Amino acid sequence: MTLPVRFTLRNETLPSLEPDTNYTIVETMPEFPGGELAMRKFITKNLVYPPVLKKTNEVVDVYITFEIERDGIIRNAKVVRGFHPLADEEALRVVNSMPPWTPGKQRGKPVRVQFTLPIRFRPK
User: Over 41-104, what HEC string results?
Assistant: First the structure.
């Protein structure tokens, strides 16, 4: 016995992408040029452990949140969880000095993505 089945696709449109929306998760996440390993190398090369903190000899993380715009440029970097004003300032400096990223995409179109990154300070 054969039973014919007919499928009809509705012509539904997806909601439009809002240009001013900050996405946190998208189909294609933003990426530092060269990937995560290249980003870690960039941070290690450019991060300066504040001399005043060398006395503590602690390994600390400073969490920075920022937006990666549709053109890959970093904007609005802020400290989410800091450690010391000098470490916070240095973490912001390094994040703001990053080259443009490959932007995140939603439905094939570049979108602004909110990103949070831990910056680890290790005494050398």
Answer: HHHHHHCCCCHHHCCCCCCEEEEEEEEECCCCCEEEEEEEECCCHHHHHHHHHHHHCCCCCECE
53-107: pLDDT as tens digits: 877 778 889 999 999 999 999 999 999 999 999 999 999 999 999 999 999 999 9
User: Where exactly are the structural domains of the chain?
Assistant: 36-121
Q: Hunting for tokens 């937006």 — which residue is that?
A: 67
CATH number for the domain running over 36-121: 3.30.2420.10
Whole-angstrom distance, CA of residue 81 vs CA of residue 78: 9
105: amino acid identity, one letter: K
User: How big is the CA angle at 85 (ends 82 and 90), to the nearest 5 degrees?
Assistant: 85
- Residue 88 tokens read as 């916070």
Total Cβ atoms within 10 A of residue 73: 13
